[in-house]
Amino acid sequence: MYLTIDPAHSRAAALAVRPRLSVVMVVYMTGPVLMESVRHALAEPLAEELVIVDNGSSVADAAWLRALARREPRVRLLQGLGNIGFARAANLGATSAKGEELVFLNPDAFLTPGAIPALRDAARDRPSPCVVGARVFNTDGTEQRGGRRGEITPVTTLLSLSKLSATLPPLRRFEIHREGDPPPPYPVDTPTISGACFYMTAGDFQRLGGFDEGYFLHVEDIDLCWRARRQGGCVLFQPHARVVHVGSTSRESPLIIEWHKGKGLVRYFLKRADSAPRKALALLLSPLILAAAVARPLLRSARRRSTRVPARLAPVTR
Which terminus of the chain, N or C, has less C-beta within 10 A? Predict the structure, then answer.
């Protein structure tokens, strides 16, 4: 079982006043940005509770989290099961949360002022279940890839992973990433948003059955969006909810991360294949999707090595 660190004064307060909104954060070997992410989350007045599920941290970070939970009434910390995967840990955090509304936030993402109110406002009077995603930025101020995406299929995924849909004009209609488009002036229906930061009511999350725990890391957010739309709900991109996502902070090997992403995509396509031809297409393209996912960190590593300037040889002296 998880060890829940929940201070006595926090438990007493929870019995008296139930928080309206809870932020759920899953942590795994995040590193220094974790403290900054927590600081931004606690600076948001609407974040009445911060539930942190620790899937694994360094000794120093784990100790810091325990100290934080003991002194900060809004923080509830769950530690002790090791790395059980993002989907399972996020479900555990959502089940433990007391709030009627939930914001799922990556531990390397920084909320900006007004982000949570904007997410909440976008969901008002929308079909249920409703998922609202934020506009996600890189640290240099550019909009991050993946924050607003089109329909994710085996074909669009393969063309996107290989960069063919972005570089070959005849294939551009298959490009699913929309961060290059002008931002809309108001929340818009979008097939897929980023799991780095999104809003749902706790009731809608439970109605969907939470995240599918068959995914270990990545793609669980894509699956959640698809299921919400399939049940007659909506997925919205809120351009006025701004979040800065550092990304690539985990100390886990990029190769392992991309392997899990590739496996998750294959699982997702097989899961949603509703006919024999679609299942056959998913099976046919699965090896290529896995290979393309795993090749990305290898190619990045090779490019970094090739661009390194060789050290100058010292002169030979006699």
Answer: C
Nearest to 218 by CA among 197, 194, 199, 242: 194
Percent helix, strand, coil in the chain, to 5, is 45, 20, 35
> ∠ CA(24), CA(25), CA(28), 5° rounding?
155
DSSP letter string, 97-113? ---SEEEEE-TTEEE-T
Q: What is the pLDDT of residues 124-137, one digit of tens each?
A: 999 999 999 999 99
Helix, coil or strand: residue 187: coil
Rg (CA), the chain: 21
Give me the torsion for CA of 262, 265, 271, 272, rounded to 10°: -160
CA nearest neighbour of 85 among 198, 195, 213, 197:
213
pLDDT in tens, 255-287: 888 888 989 999 999 999 999 999 999 899 888
How does strand 101-105 pair with strand 21-28? parallel
C-alpha span between 263 and 286 (Å, rounded): 9
Average pLDDT of 12-34?
84
How many whole angstroms separate alpha carbon 199 and alpha carbon 121? 10
- Rounded distance, CA 70 to CA 38, Å? 15
DSSP code at position 61: H
Query: Are the CB atoms for 235 and 204 separated by under 8 Å?
Result: no
End-to-end CA distance of the chain: 69
